[in-house]
Amino acid sequence: MTDLLAEYAARRPKSLALFERARRSLAGAVGHDLRYALPAPIYIERGQGGRKRDIDGNEYVDFLMGNGALLLGHADPEVVEAIARAASLGTHFGNDHPLHIEWAELVQTLIPCAERVRFTNSGTEATLLAIRIARAATGRSRLLRFAGHFHGWHDDVVHGFHPPFDADGSLGVPPHVREGLVTIPDGNLNLVDETLAANPDIAAVILEPSGASWGRVPIDVEWLRGVREATARRGVLLIFDEVVTGFRFSAGGAQKLYGVTPDLCCLAKVMAGGMPGGAVAGREAVMRVFDMTGDPHHDRHQRVVHFGTFNAAPPSAAAGIAVLRRVADGTAIAAANDAAARLRSAWDDVLERRGIAGYVYGSASTYHVYFETDPGRVREANRRSDLHTTEAGRLKGMSGRLIARYQLRMRSAGVDNMSSTGGVTCAAHSPADVEAATIAFEQTVIALRDEGLVLPLA
Ligand SMILES: Cc1ncc(COP(=O)(O)O)c(C=O)c1O
After folding, report:
1. Pairing with 73, which of 81, 148, 286, 336 sits 20 to 30 Å away (CA)?
2. Separation between Cα atoms, residue 389 and residue 211, nearest integer Å
3. What does pLDDT average to over the chain?
4. Domain boundaries, the chain
């Protein structure tokens, strides 16, 4: 073992032991691919505000924040109280209940396209359902998606988010699924237009309005506007996947921030306040596909079927309502944005001061770090800004070894990120949290430079 691995392991004996047990009980040893780490994942015991503590007593400034679900931070007292109150009356009835309606009304008030709302249990279920709705409403079947954009793990969307984008996304997806998919790079409006013209069987265009992977690959808002116009012109439905951006980029999501209203949007994460939950929200005329009319033929053959034992269960609805009320007044988003802006600026200063080829960027309460590891580009660049790119393959193509070492070193120094080299902030992150994280970032990039994994500016 290297010194780093040995030190990491020495400070986490309980985590190592738990990982051994997990290897014998959990398929793949973890519950989510991104949690896998060597020599062992971190196992968390508790979180409060912007920090969390593992079972070995190590504390982390947390920028994973429940995979982006916790805009208010860990164990927010109002959210915990709302969940406890709802759970004490019964965790689940299988019937609808008043909190369900109140939750939908809040979503309706905040999200521009949300004339109607249908709840699911996760973001993956939300994109699955949105695609079904779009197919039902248009009578067409194919889906246009963009290389690099992430929409969950179900068959229809698992190809195309991780480079190389033309390779299969997972084993186990039937070959015919590819026939239903058209995947192109984002950012080129002519290409969108040509693709829609050449494929009249496209039901919907789905995209992350932040750009791929919550803005890791930024997009131009003018392009978003163009896609809105191009889809409207051809009767193709536009689906915004706002699973990350909803209630984070603004109280009304990216659609409100950028002034571009889709036909349907997918919501989850912040919407459910750290509990399981998701939703599709959309135009009433489209969401009518669920309506029952009482006509047996219509109700059996001419509507979209949707079940889900735990859809909008009371504790999720209660947590969601508590968070959305705080989102609505703007203060939570402003505080989280402020923490991210401070972090991006401080970390970018670190790279500048240390002369490392790379940059820190992001919107709202997100950050991403890009390290330029192509010696040709660093040599040609005379200013750091010359390194800037919007190429999905490059921004999502940093080496697996660099990312693993970055994450390991950041965790060793007391910071947990969301995925790759990026993360999200919450309203509870204090200036002291950002300062502590900046010290960890500086130690990390110096060590990565010494290892030769990141490059000095030529
Ligand atoms: C943009 C986007 N869509 C969909 C999903 C899937 O959501 P879930 O993990 O709740 O299934 C995610 C999850 O990270 C996401 O980031």
Report:
1. 148
2. 13
3. 96
4. 3-73+331-450, 77-328
Give the C-alpha separation, 244 to 241, whole Å.
8
Q: Atom 5, ligand 1: which residue's CA is nearest?
A: 152
**Hey, what are 426's tokens?**
């919450």
Residue 126 has pLDDT above 90, yes or no: yes
> What is 3-73+331-450's CATH number?
3.90.1150.10
Look up the CATH number of domain 77-328.
3.40.640.10
Pocket of ligand 1 (CB under 6 A): 67, 122-124, 127, 150-152, 208, 241, 243-244, 268, 278
Which pLDDT tens digit goes with each residue over 28-85? 999 999 999 999 999 999 999 999 999 999 999 999 999 999 999 999 999 999 999 9
Compute the average pLDDT of residues 373-398.
Answer: 87
Pocket test for ligand 1, best of 65, 149, 151, 255 (most atoms within 8 A of CB): 151
